[in-house]
Give the backbone structure.
Amino acid sequence: MDKKIISTGAFLGMIAIILGAFGAHALKKVLSMEELSTFETGVRYQMYHAFFLLFIGMINDLSQKAKKIIYNLVLFGVLLFSGSIYVLATNSLTSFDFKVIGFITPIGGLLLILAWVVLLLHFIKKKA
């Protein structure tokens, strides 16, 4: 499980860097400053959670069950939160109105928060 978690963290980090560079160079010419800022928020949170997965994969004090729960929450959280932010920020570039899927952004955010809650509760419950 640790290899999968670390590999996913590395992959999400790599994609965040690619999307960040894409936003800073290619999208800078076609998006408003507000849209670009929104896109960068998606990149930033994706990178935070890539690091979070790397951390989760490397710590030994966490049960495999907790790691699996955190992994799934982060993976689906990033897909829903950052993914929806990417399409909402670039909505003006497409003919489809992605605002209809805007409700999934807070769901993704909730999943990310829950991943941190699982980590916190694990260490609160852990005996000294």
Remarks:
- The chain is about 75% helix and 0% strand.
- The chain has a mean pLDDT of 92.
- The two ends are 25 Å apart (CA to CA).
- The CA atoms of residues 46 and 78 lie 6 Å apart.
